[in-house]
Amino acid sequence: MASFSCCSFVSGRRACWGLSKPMPRRLEIRGLTRRFGGVAAVKSLDLAIDDGELVSLIGPNGAGKTTTFNMVSGLDRPDQGEILFEGQPIQRLSPEAIAALGVARTFQHGRVFANLSVEDNVLLGAHTRLRAVRPPLPVVGPLAELALALIRPARVKREEAALRDEAREILALFGDRLTPRLDHPAYSLSYANRRRVEIARALALRPRLLLLDEPTAGMNPTETDEMQALIASLKARGMTILLIEHKLDLVMHLSDRVCVLDDGAKIAEGTPNAVRNDPSVIEAYLGHSAVGRAAQSAEAVGP
Amino acid sequence: MMQLAFAHPAAETLSSFIDYTVNGLVIGNIYALLAVGLALIFGVANLINFAHGSVYTIGAYVGWAAITFLHTPLPVTMAIVFVVCALLGMGIERIALRPLQGKARIAPLLATIGLSFVLDQLVQLVCSPDPRAVPSDLPDWRLAVGGVSIGPMDFLIAAVGIVSAALLYAFLRFTKLGLAVRATAQDRDAALQMGVNVNAVNSAVFAIASALGGLGGLLVGMYYNHIDPAMSFQATLKGIVAQVIGGVGNVPGAILGGALLGLTESYGIAVFGTTYRNLFAFVLLIAFLVWFPSGLFGARSAIHTEPLVGTFIAPSRPIRAPRWAVASLAIAAFALPLVTSAPYLLQTLTNAWLAAMLALSLTLVAGTAGQISLGQAALLAIGGYASALLAIDLGAPAIASVPAAGVITAALGALLVFPAFRLRGHYIAIATLAIGEIVSLVILNWESLTGGAMGLTGIPPLSFLGRDLNSNRAIYWTCLVVLVAIAALQTRLLASHLGRTLRAVREDEIAAQSYGVDLDRYKALAFAFGGFAAGVAGAITAHLYSYLNNQTFDSQLSLLALTMVILGGMGNVLGAIVGAVALVGLPELFRVAAEYRILIYGVVLLLLVRFRPQGLLGTV
Question: Nearest CA of chain B to the CA of A74: how many Å?
C-alpha cells in the first residue's frame, strides 16, 4: 500500500512547465467579462501578474473585484475572456482543480469551517498536498484513500505528522494570536482571528498564487499593521499575491502594481504612485467635484 | 360502416381516459391544497413543514367526528375543520418555529418532524389505528357526460380548490396582512425593519396553510370514504412533491404542481397498476430536484441563493469520554450475558446494538458529512434483501453473505444518492426521503426477485463455522462484536484526514471546494461507509427475523434513526450508540407500550431541538 507514489508525478508536471518557452506569466487575464442579468460586473478586464509580484485590485464597492476573484478561483464562470494560470487556461476548470494547480484564496466575509478546530482548518488548507493517502488511481482512487486512511501505513502517518508540524509553523506566523487556540473551534474565535485562520489555511496550500480578499476587514489599526507586516514578509519570501483591499495606505505600501476597477472596468493600472495621482482614480473614489481639489494634493487618495 | 365498427372500443378508451383525467384532477386538487400551504409556509419561514400531513389527517378526523357525533351538515363540518386546523397551525408555529429563530437552520425542520410524530400518534391513540368511514350527506346523483360519470364530490373538491385559490389570491393581493406576508416572503429582515410583525405574519400563514390542509384531509376522507392515521406521512410527501414540481415556495406553482402530480399518478396507475402509484411521485420528485431544482415556475437561482448553505448544525464542544470509560462500558456490555441470561434483556440489547449500527451509519452521513438523510432505513432493506437472497438463492453462509451485503449496500447506497449530491440543506433531506421510498417501492414491485408484498421467507439463521447461532447469548455477542468493530473503524476514520474533510464539506461546501475538496468523492465515501454499516445491520436483522418484506424497514425507522443521532450528538460515534440504546433499549426495558413509543420519540426530538440541539454528547 505504501508504495503508491504520486510525488514524482507532480514534480514531473511542474518540471515540465518550467521547460516550456517562453515563460508564461503566473496569471494572465484577458478580456474577462461577467454579466449578471443586464449588468456587467466585470467588463473585458486585462490583468497580468508575474512571479513574485504583489498586485492590488482596488476600487469602490461593486467594482467587480470579488467577482474577478470568484472567476479566477473557479467558483464563477466568465461570459467571455480567458484566465491563464502559468500558461494554462483555467476558466472552465472546477474550483478543486484550480486549487490543485496551486491557487489559494481567502473570502471577503470569512468562510472558516466553524465547527473545526483552528488546526484542522489549516490542515484542510493542505488538502491538495496530501499525496501518500490520496493515490492518483483511476476509479479505485477513493477506495484506496479510504483504505489508507483506516490502515494508516507509515508513509501516511509521516505525511500527516509533517503537515501538522507545518500547520503549527504557519500559525506561529501570527505570533500568539492563534497558537494558544489550536484546539479551539473556529466559531469561538474573534472576527479578526477568523480572518487570520483564513490566511493560515490559504498558506497551508503552499500557493503559487495567493488571492487575498480584504484581509484586514474588521481589524483595528494595530491588527492592520500586523497583517501588513505579515503580507510584507510573505512577499519577501517570493510569494505571488493578488490582493483586494480597501485600506489604501496598506495597498500603497505593499503593492508592486495597483489595478483600479470602477463599475467593472479597469480605469487605471500602474505603480502605487502613478495610480495615486491619476485623476480618473480620484474621481472614482471621491466623485467628480473632488478632482480639481485633489489634483493639488497628491496625498488626497491616501487615508 | 367501418367507423361504426371501431366506434365502440375507441369511445370506451376515450371515456376511461377522461375518467382517469377527472380522477387525476380531483386528487391533484387535494395535492394542490397541501402544496399551497407548504409553499406559503416555505415562503415566509424558509421551512419545509413536515407536520403538514398530520394537520391534514387531523382535519379528516375532526370532520369525521363532527359528522359522526354531532351530525353536522357539510358547510358546518367544513367550517369546524377550517377553524380547528387553523388553530392547530398557529400552535405548530408557536412550537416549531417561533422559539427556534436564530438557532441552527436545521432546527425548525427537525421540530416539525418531531411534531408530526406526536400529532400522528395522538390521532392513533385517540381514534385507534383502524380505518374509519366518513359518511357524506351529499346528494346521490351522478352526471353522465359521454360515458364519464361525475358526482357531486368531484364538483365539491373542484369548487373548494377554485374558491380557496381565489380567496388566497385576493388575500395576498388586496389585504394589508397579505402584503405583509408577501413582504416577509421576499425579505424577512427587511420586513422586520419596516415594522412588519413577522411573528404575526408567520402565525397567520400557518393558520391559513393548515386550514387548507385540513380541508384537503376532510375532502379526501369523503372522496374515498376512508380515513386512517397512516395517511399523514404520504400526504406530507405528496405535498412536497407537488411543491417541488411547481417551484419551492411558489404558490401558483404549487397549484399546477398538484394538478400535474395528480394527473401523472392517475395515468400511471392506468398503465402500470396501483402498486406503482407512489413510485411516480417520487421519481418525479428526484427528477425535478436534480434537473429542474427550481421547479417549473421558481426563479432560476432559487437553490443558489438559498440561505441554507453552510453550517446549519448547532455549534458545540463535544464531551470527550475518556478512553478508560469507553473501554469499561464495552467490557461491561460484553460481560453482561455472563451475569444474566434473561432472554428479554439480551434480546432488547441486541436490538439496540442493531439500531446503533444504523445510527452510526446516519451519524456519519448526516452528522459528519452534513447530508441529512431521511431515507437511511432503505439501506437496511438493501442489506437485508442482499444477504437473504445470497443465502437463499446461492446458499451462501452468513459469514460471507452478511459482509457481502454490506459491500453491496455501500455501492448501491452511494450510487442511489449520487444524483442528489449537488443538493443542499433541506433539499438533500427531501431527496433522500424520496430515494428511500423508491427503494421500498421497487422492493414491493420487483416480485420475481423480492417476493413483492409476500416478502421473503425461510431466511437461514446466522451461522458461524457451520454452527447455527441460536442462543440469545451467541446472537448478542455477535451483534456486539460487529457494532464495536464498526464503531472502532468509524472512530479511526474520523481521526484521519477524511474526518476533517467530511466535516469541512458539512461546514461550508464552497470553502471546501476552493481548497481542492472534490465534494462528490467525499460524499460518496461517506454514503459508502455508512451504507456498509447499515447494510450489515440490515443483513443481520434479516437472518434473525428469517422473514422480510417491503415494510420491515419502513420510513419511520429512518426518522427514528435521525432522532437517535440528534439525541447522541451529530457525528458523535459514542453518541449514536447512546442514542440507540436510549431510544430502543430503554422503552423496551421499561415496557412502554408500542403506541406510546413514537410519541416519546417525537417529544424527545422536540425537547432536544429546543433545549439541547447539540445532543447529549455534543456535535463532533
Answer: 8
What letters, b where the CB count within 10 A reaches 16 and e where it falls short, cover B403-438?
A: bbbbbbbbbbbbebbeebbbbbbbbbbbbbbbbbbb
Model confidence, pTM:
0.87
Sheet with A27-36: strands ordered across: A39-49, A27-36, A80-85, A88-89
**What residues in B contact A149, CB-CB < 8 Å?**
492-493, 496-498
* B126 and B240 co-located in one domain: yes
- How far A162 CA lies from chain B's nearest CA (Å)? 13
Task: Calculate the average pLDDT of chain B.
Answer: 87
Task: Name the strand (E) or helix (H) holding A48.
Answer: strand A39-49
Q: Give the whole-angstrom CA distance, residue A83 versus residue B61.
A: 64
Residues of chain A below pLDDT 50: 1-18, 294-295, 297-303
Instruction: State the cell numbers at B595.
Output: 403506541
Tens digits of residue pLDDT in B210-230 = 999 999 999 999 988 889 888
| Residues B486 and B423 both lie in one domain | yes
Q: Is there a domain that residue B342 lies in?
A: yes
* B28 domain residue, yes or no: yes
| B225 and B349 in a common domain | no
Taking an 8 Å cut-off on Cβ atoms, the answer to whether B497 and A111 are in contact is: no
Out of A99, A125, A150, the one facing B492 most closely (by C-beta) is A150
Question: Which of the four pLDDT bands, split at 50, 70 and 90, describes residue B69?
Answer: very high
Residues B239 and B370 in one domain: no
Q: What is the ipTM of this complex?
A: 0.86
Domain that holds residue B78: 20-291
Give B311's contacts in chain A (Cβ within 8 Å).
114-115
Residue B328 pLDDT exceeds 80:
yes
Does one domain contain both B285 and B331? Answer: no
Contact A142 B497 (CB under 8 A): no
Q: How far is A176 from chain B (nearest CA, A)?
A: 23
Note whether B315 contacts A142, CB cutoff 8 Å. no
CB contact under 8 A, A96 and B317: no
- Asked if residue B388 and residue B279 are part of one domain, the reply reads no
